[in-house]
Design goal:
Layout: H1 2-6, E1 14-18, E2 37-42, E3 51-53, E4 56-62, E5 73-77, H2 88-105, E6 109-113, H3 116-131, E7 136-142, E8 166-172
Parallel strand pairs: 1-2, 1-5, 2-4, 5-6
Antiparallel strand pairs: 3-4, 6-8, 7-8
């Protein structure tokens, strides 16, 4: 539901999940049938075989994003930890590729965040990479479709922590 709510409708509904981890191992029935294909890429992505289930195809690529996604793909980063001090520099090359992809194709980017603290950390990087470009719009929203199971991050203090609690979308201005 997070994808359907935060990504605009399109004639070519394909999604690339960048930095894929556990989401790549979810049963395929959990992925919306309104999308034609899902590509999972990330260093922790399991090396699964590409397959098709019904009318939806699934591709898996362990490794880093080093080239632009296909033109029809919208990119999603599920709670990537962009601003975490151990990961920030590792994300910058992929974010540059995704920025160029959004500008070239008008396909959106969607980032999700566990908590307000996670959002604030990542927002610094999102602003650094995307915010200064007047051709792009960055929108932050709470996510009414978040997972309601309360989680706790190791480095977080007080407060609620839910998977996909906040969403940031980056789109090309018309």
């Amino acid at each position: 539901m997070t994808l359907a709510y935060h990504l605009p409708p399109t004639n070519n509904p394909s999604i690339i999940v960048v930095g894929a981890r556990k989401e790549a191992t979810l049963p395929k029935k959990y992925w919306s049938p309104s999308y034609q294909s899902f590509s999972f890429i990330g260093p922790a992505c399991p090396p699964l075989r590409s397959c098709k289930e019904g009318s939806t195809s699934f591709r898996y690529s362990p490794g880093l994003l080093t080239s632009p996604p296909n033109d029809g793909e919208a990119a999603v980063l599920f709670h990537p930890g962009l601003g975490h001090h151990l990961h920030k520099n590792g994300w910058l090359p992929a974010l540059s590729i995704l920025k160029d992809h959004t500008l070239r194709t008008s396909r959106p980017l969607l980032f999700t965040h566990y908590s307000e603290a996670d959002l604030e950390r990542d927002a610094v990087v999102v602003e650094e990479v995307f915010g200064s470009d007047e051709r792009l719009e960055v929108r932050v929203e709470s996510n009414e479709w978040m997972d309601l199971k309360d989680l706790k991050e190791e480095d977080e203090g007080e407060g609620e922590t839910f998977a996909n609690m906040f969403c940031v979308t980056v789109t090309r201005r018309a």
